[in-house]
Specification:
Distance between the termini: 23 Å
Number of helices: 11
Number of strands: 43
Helix content: 10-25%
């Protein structure tokens, strides 16, 4: 539960002291004695600095010598203190007063323009000069992530949250406490021409686990037109910077005054969104007079800013010089609050950047397809190490959280293999209950080290269905698995049993699979290989279209309520061997071979809850293409598919790599052969298919998704209906597969064995564009989506549909109005309901 919450949010530098370093510590307050959380303390004339914690306390280790410490906090007058470091530790406190802004030279006449606009225009003109001021640099980023619960609901989806669950989350009986705490030190390398970036995670820790913590330093750059402060899946449009090229169309500005630092005049500008429900910030931004660069900022996003999942998010940055005429973000704090399903929490991401090197030298081939690399000892650092490199003192509750949860974790490791611990976990796991078997499903483990055995079962009632062939049918689906080689290999057996109560047919089959992950080479030549072998066989029920264009539960509803039996099925005795290999260069190869003995099955019941005088059930075969039931026959098939996404990038953990995608589309080429005469096979055909798909983010203008394909039969001497090229039609109100379906087309009416066909699916998600002009839609965060699906076989077999709709309804649903054209003539118009939006898209992907 804790991990699922943190994954919604965590999509958002220090120097090792030498042996003679002396600790300087103190606190930062305002002139009334209130602590200033996360104030910045810099060593003047260097790129070194630290940040105070939430209680305003800081410490800094310096070698003996003379220094000037500079303390800054957005909205307060900077303070400097000269110190001489000897052999003894020192306490140096800072007390900052609110900035006294001068407006003596500013005169705004009635009807005149506020002087803030002229300052912003200058900043916009200089934006590109500061967008990437360095051709290359390196720096170290200390990152601390904290999430604290303020309230935990009593139930989630009807399931009670027990006290033991609260303890695992790290909260007390009132639901308050730290639920996530991590810190890390990452070295960032940046090269502008060509643009390259690489991250080295030097160290990372996560309270109560051996995880690496949140290790990705985020430079939130307001010199970009579009500012991303969250994962793009949450806010794909981004947010408009107050100094973007088009900022004057979106913001109003007010001059608040100016102050002086190091002889530079700094203008403080209030940023005000012109309209609600657009991706806009509010707050203040400080611009240096004459240079027109950002000095600091304090900006806020709220729900009316099209902020998803979170209730508020504020960003505070302090910029500082790191070289001649070069400024970078020195420290950055992102605060957030959220209330989801009764979980009320607050948190922050703190980034402190140190040790800038503006003339770095890298070894040959340093920049490669590994974007992020973890040191082999990154999560094995001692407490003394963290105390020596941490630029932000831990708060008392953070130190306590580390002590308690790390102790519990180590105790669990020490006793993991003990009989006492195993018995305790088995007791807590509990026996399988009837309601789990019927409605929830269950999973269990024997916790036997080092190779635990797991088994699970899907719930019975949700997996029951009804159709005109089997009547009521029950499905039992389970899985048994055992891990080997520290989880690098998994052996699994997946049994499936299906029984039709009306035709009294029992179908049973199983799949035995072996998944292996292996590592080849070492250092920069490290590569990983994922392989899966699967052997399956038995007797099962299949749809004529192997892509299963209609969900069984949808067919059950339509059969019982509307007397429509759209799903067409047959039985097959089969044996099949599959092999899949995933290479970390983005190449995936799939190969298979199968024997199928295909048996026709017919309707055995005509029952429906509602009777229609003019409506009868159709035969259980694709009657649009066949005049009668297909004959029993055998088929020996083999196939191979090659899928490749060039430019793949990776995160490299010790001993393995994880692909994280590419800016290029994915290409796929597939070939299938039907073998005549082999093992009595009656089929004889060869067919191919080539596809390309991708998502293209146009930021404020939305997200474009497409899937294009061509294919055909090279040989069609003997092709049965199961092996035709089917186009995934849909005749129900429930949408089928977006980007791979045709929402108003018949299921089998256009199936073909033609030598050539082409398909195209394209849809544009506006993500708030246009709908943010409509009061109701912008309040509800409903987004417009539009597009088209089409296929072409020949002049007598072609189809096009266009659609427009709304998505992100309750974050889950999507509604489309679709119009179709068959062979160039208008067909019909219909409405389709599906999953779409922030949560709906994720649920839809998981369901498939």
């Amino acid at each position: 539960m804790q991990k699922s919450l943190i994954l919604l949010l965590l999509c958002y530098c220090t120097v090792l002291p030498d042996a003679r370093a002396v600790r300087i510590s103190g606190s930062v307050t305002d002139d009334k004695g209130n602590f200033l959380a996360y104030a910045s303390i810099l060593v003047k004339g260097s790129t070194r600095g630290v940040t105070a914690n939430n209680e305003g306390k800081y410490f800094l280790d310096l070698s003996p010598g003379a220094y000037t410490l500079v303390c800054q906090y957005v909205g307060y007058t900077r303070q400097e203190k000269k110190i001489t470091v000897g052999q003894e530790s020192q306490k140096v406190d800072f007390s900052l007063s609110l900035q006294q802004l001068s407006m003596a030279d500013v005169v705004v006449r009635p009807g005149g323009e506020d002087p803030a606009y002229e300052i912003i225009r200058h900043a916009i003109k200089k934006r590109k000069d500061y967008e990437a001021p360095l051709d290359s640099f390196t720096c170290e980023a200390y990152i601390k992530t904290l999430v604290k619960s303020r309230k935990v609901p009593k139930r989630v989806f009807g399931q009670k949250i027990e006290e033991k669950d609260k303890q695992e989350m790290g909260v007390d009986s009132a639901g308050k406490g730290i639920i996530y705490l991590s810190e890390s030190l990452t070295k960032l390398s940046y090269k502008r021409r060509p643009e390259k970036i690489k991250l080295e995670v030097l160290s990372g820790r996560e309270s109560g686990s051996n995880g690496y913590g949140f290790s990705v330093p985020t430079f939130i750059s307001f010199y970009n037109n579009n500012v991303y402060v969250l994962p793009r899946q949450l806010n794909p449009r981004g947010f408009i910077s107050p100094i973007a090229e088009s900022a004057l169309h979106y913001y109003r500005y007010k001059y608040l005054g100016s102050f002086f630092e190091d002889g530079k005049e700094v203008n403080k500008i209030q940023v005000i969104p012109r309209r609600k429900y657009e991706p806009l910030f509010s707050g203040t931004i400080d611009i240096i007079e004459g240079e027109w660069r950002i000095h600091g900022l304090d900006l806020l996003l709220v729900k009316e800013s099209q902020l998803e999942m979170l209730d508020t998010l504020s960003i505070r940055q302090i910029h500082a010089p790191i070289g001649d005429n070069v400024w970078q973000v020195k420290d950055q704090v992102v605060y957030f609050t959220f209330n989801i399903m009764g979980f009320d929490a607050v948190g922050n991401f703190l980034n402190v950047y140190n040790n800038y090197d503006v003339a770095p030298r890298w070894r040959k081939r340093w920049f490669n397809n590994v974007l992020m690399k973890y040191d082999t000892a990154a999560n094995k650092k001692t407490r003394a190490y963290w105390d020596s490199i941490r630029p932000v003192p831990l708060e008392p509750e953070e130190a306590t959280n580390y002590t308690i949860r790390d102790s519990i974790y180590r105790s669990g490791l020490d006793s993991a293999g003990s009989k006492r611990n195993r018995d305790s976990m088995l007791t807590r796991q509990g026996p399988v209950k009837l309601n789990q078997i019927l409605t929830k499903g269950f999973n269990r483990s024997n916790f036997r080290q080092p190779f635990p055995f797991r088994y699970e079962m899907q719930p019975l009632l949700p997996n029951m269905g009804y159709n005109t062939v089997e009547g009521i049918n029950a499905n039992i689906d389970g899985s048994l698995s055992r891990s080997f080689n520290k989880g690098a290999s998994v052996l699994a057996l997946d049994p499936h049993i299906r029984y039709g109560f009306h035709n009294t047919r029992l179908n049973a089959w199983a799949a035995l699979s072996l998944r292996r992950r292996s590592v080849i080479g070492e250092g920069d030549d490290l590569s990983s290989l994922g392989q899966t072998w699967s052997l399956s066989g038995g007797r099962r029920v299949e749809q004529f279209n192997p892509h299963r264009p209609i969900y069984e539960y949808v067919n059950s509803l339509y059969t019982l309520l509307f007397r429509r039996n759209y799903m067409k099925i047959y039985e097959q005795w089969f044996g099949r061997l599959d092999y899949t290999v995933h290479m970390d260069n983005g190449l995936v190869i799939k190969a298979n071979a199968a024997y199928e003995d295909r048996l026709p099955i017919n309707n055995t019941t005509g029952y429906s809850l509602i009777k229609y005088k003019d409506r009868e059930f159709t035969p259980n075969y694709p009657f649009e293409k066949l005049s009668s039931q297909f004959p029993r026959h055998q088929a020996v098939l083999s196939g191979v598919e090659v899928e490749y996404q060039p430019g793949q990038r990776f995160i490299e953990f010790p001993g393995r790599r994880v692909a994280i995608g590419s800016k290029y589309p994915t290409f796929s080429l597939a070939y299938q052969k039907g073998w005549s005469g082999l093992l009595g096979s009656d089929v004889n055909f060869d067919k191919w298919q080539f596809s390309v798909w991708d998502d293209v983010n146009f930021r404020l203008k939305g997200l474009l998704r497409y899937n294009l394909g061509i294919g055909g039969f090279i040989n069609d001497r003997s092709v049965f209906i199961q092996d035709y090229q089917h186009f995934n039609g849909n005749q129900t109100i429930i949408a089928n597969q977006y980007l791979n379906g045709f929402q108003l087309a018949p299921y089998y009416g256009n199936s073909t064995t033609a030598a050539f066909y082409a398909t195209g699916h394209i849809e544009h998600h506006f993500n708030g564009l246009l709908t943010n002009k409509i009061p109701l839609f912008r309040r509800l965060n409903w987004y417009l989506v539009a597009g088209s699906n089409a296929f072409y076989v020949n002049q007598d077999n072609n189809y096009t549909e266009v659609f427009g709709g709304l998505e992100n309804i309750l974050k889950l649903f999507r509604v489309d109005v679709v119009a179709s054209f068959l062979n160039g003539h208008y067909g019909q118009t219909g409405v389709r309901l599906g999953l779409g939006g922030l949560l709906g898209s994720a649920f839809r992907a998981r369901r498939r």
